[in-house]
Amino acid sequence: MRAVLGSCDVPLAQAFDLALVDLDGVTYKGHEPIDHAADGLAGARAAGMRLVFVTNNASREPESVAEQLTSLDIPAAPADVMTAAQACARLLGDHVPQGSRVLVVGGAGLRTAVAAAGYVVVDSAEDEPAAVAQGFAPTLAWEQLAEAAYAVASGAVHVASNLDLSLPTARGFAPGNGALVGAVTNATGVEPVSAGKPSPAMYAMAVERAGARRPLVIGDRLDTDLAGARAGGYPGLHVLTGVNDGRDDVLAAPGLRPDFIGADLRSLLEPHTAPTQAEDGWWTSGDAAARVRDGALELSGRGANGGVDAVRAACAAAWDHVDAGGSLDAGSVPDLPVGGAS
């Protein structure tokens, strides 16, 4: 499978009618806003693009998420939010009938979604639940994880809202739901099914809800946001404001690669020109150029100092070389800082 950078002659906000926007690492980090997120999304809306915020966080209810976004100058209503809790509740229907007892290990958002889907929420394995629904909550303790392990070991279906190993906060990266799910998996030996990204289920639900024809996925993580976009056949924009950086893009396997790369959400307001290859093997994007020679990545022009064009050129050169069967020395790929330019 080959996955290359795309080209768009008009701003992305004009070419796509719906943005499926991740939250942590894209619009905010913890409780702090991400630079230019509000301006970029306001401009996208002004261009006619609809926004749905799609998050692997299952601990909060849509109303709470919408309130936080609005407080950060990103106006949002609960209907504009799609959470992994909602996807998890829907996924339960593939395994247990409505009316079943479900042990919920997570926050208020997951409890509300499971109850709204027609299940009886319980808190103990002694209630003999048919399933365990597990999502992240900062207040989770050993007792709740133990109850989940007891229930799963007794035959309950284990459904996780997501398997993110880490989550970005204002202080750095902290353990995510996947790390907590791993504790239950290690105790039981039973692998859970997951509703969150990289499964494209939430994207499909959001697209159906919005009636969109040309959706665009926007995220900061390659292994969840962009992998989910590839899995669902949706174009994806990687913004370099969260977990993964430009170097990760260069080294990404085909199933994790974005179609577009931007420094931040202002990149929604710009055309995106795909890198081009010259006869001498150099790939160029803007004033940056890159090629792979003897398995090593080389950068030239402005690309030597980083920037988004350097990331794009490097991706084109590296992906073309690797997809043609060549090997790439990861040690030759430098950090590619993007600064504030998009």
TrEMBL record:
<dbReference type="GO" id="GO:0005737">
    <property type="term" value="C:cytoplasm"/>
</dbReference>
<dbReference type="GO" id="GO:0016791">
    <property type="term" value="F:phosphatase activity"/>
</dbReference>
<protein>
    <submittedName>
        <fullName>HAD-IIA family hydrolase</fullName>
    </submittedName>
</protein>
<dbReference type="InterPro" id="IPR006357">
    <property type="entry name" value="HAD-SF_hydro_IIA"/>
</dbReference>
<dbReference type="InterPro" id="IPR023214">
    <property type="entry name" value="HAD_sf"/>
</dbReference>
<dbReference type="Pfam" id="PF13344">
    <property type="entry name" value="Hydrolase_6"/>
</dbReference>
<keyword id="KW-0378">Hydrolase</keyword>
<dbReference type="Pfam" id="PF13242">
    <property type="entry name" value="Hydrolase_like"/>
</dbReference>
<dbReference type="InterPro" id="IPR036412">
    <property type="entry name" value="HAD-like_sf"/>
</dbReference>
